[in-house]
Specification:
It is a single chain. The longest helix is centred in the middle third of the chain and has 21 residues, at 112-132. This protein has helices at 5-18, 44-61, 64-79, 112-132, 135-155, 202-209, 218-232, 278-290, 294-307, 333-338; strands at residues 98-100, 106-108, 196-197, 233-234, 254-255, 258-259. With 345 residues, it is mainly alpha-helical. It is globular, with a radius of gyration of 19 Å.
Length: 345
């Protein structure tokens, strides 16, 4: 946002201008031509993340007029979480519904990743509501945020990291939220379960970039970040089995997407759990640095850049699903996290 504010602003305007459904679900793939949108699905993490991005844009521009032009749609996109059968249908500040996400599956039941994104969106929604004078909506966001934050720390933090409580989906999911048939199962596949997930605090990473403060208990988050590094970082992959795509080889280091240090790994874990993604590694490294774990953050970055040193791989292309994948642009957050005047933590 800080580097290319005009480009970022135009992306937000395109998404809210063309990709919001009549029900206020945010299509997470925007089609061209803009006037002919064909994608139908909404992602819980993507929809909440875009709300945070709107607040980031406001922090750069400081233009309340621009914010007011989008506010009705931003507000409705956040309120979409409260639809019957939706992500937070009971309005307790925790996502329990059918949560499609960046792993190309739906998570069922509370988890720190999707609820963290939601918590960040509630915090951003409160801030933006204050700017436009919508005091009632700001108060609602604050109430949900505080209730949800307390619930996550009490129920999802296991003393080392945050886990998922897998549960059956609502009988009638909100429109645009269920992209697979897993919601019909009493025991849905492709869940995090009791895994130590590198993305468990991705919402806090984004909240820090937007100056939104702590989403969960700070001590718990720091302990979870320490556990994430301890359990998920590998100096090499000689003893690691990966049944998915290969982005690192035996003698290379990386931060794995997820590990299962305790008994009870799901029979069918969520896709990509055994891979490593540079975009996730850079975001995790920025958060580690935010939390004062600079050595750990440096180690993660060194591993990612060591794999893309110009000899082994293209230093300018860090692929995930495809070449030049956008998630790796999270590397720019490291400049901000490392800045000596950073006041985030």
């Amino acid at each position: 946002v800080d580097l290319f504010p005009d480009l970022h602003r135009s992306m937000l305007e395109a998404h809210y201008g063309f990709a919001l459904t009549p029900e206020s679900a945010q299509r997470f793939r925007i089609s061209l031509p803009l006037a002919n949108q064909t994608w139908d699905g909404a992602a819980a993490d993507g929809q909440m993340g875009m709300i945070v991005r709107c607040y980031q844009q406001y922090r750069v521009d400081r233009d309340p007029t621009w914010l007011k032009t989008l506010w009705t749609k931003i507000k409705s996109a956040l309120a979409f979480a409260w639809e019957p059968g939706g992500w937070d249908a009971d309005q307790d500040g925790v996502m329990e519904g059918v949560q499609h996400n960046t792993y190309d599956v739906e998570f069922f039941g509370p988890n720190a990743m999707c609820t963290g994104w939601y918590q960040a969106a509630l915090a951003a929604g409160s801030k933006m509501a204050g700017v436009v004078g919508d005091k009632e909506f700001a108060a609602k966001c604050d109430d949900l945020r505080h209730k949800g934050s307390a619930w996550v720390d009490e129920h999802l933090y296991n003393g080392r990291f945050y886990v998922q409580h897998v549960q059956k989906a609502p009988a009638a999911p909100a429109p645009h939220t269920a992209l697979s048939g897993e919601f019909k199962s009493d025991h849905p596949r492709f869940q995090i379960g009791n895994g130590c997930h590198t993305d468990q605090l991705i919402g806090q990473y984004k909240a820090n970039r937007a100056g939104l403060g702590d989403l969960f208990d700070r001590f718990h988050m720091k302990e979870a970040a320490k556990s994430m590094f301890k359990l998920n970082y590998r100096a090499n992959l000689r003893d690691h089995y990966n049944n998915m795509r290969t982005y690192a080889t035996a003698d290379e280091g990386c931060l794995l997407v997820c590990t299962y240090p305790d008994p009870g790994r799901p029979e069918f874990p969520f896709p990509y759990w055994s891979e490593c993604w540079t975009g996730m590694e850079y975001a995790a490294a920025a958060l580690l640095i935010d939390l004062g774990l600079k050595k750990e953050g440096e180690t993660v970055v060194a591993a990612a850049r060591g794999r893309h040193d110009g000899a082994k791989r293209n230093p300018f292309n860090e692929p995930e699903c495809g070449s030049y994948y956008a998630r790796s642009m999270s590397s720019w957050a490291l400049l901000e996290a490392w800045a000596p005047d950073s006041q985030r933590y």
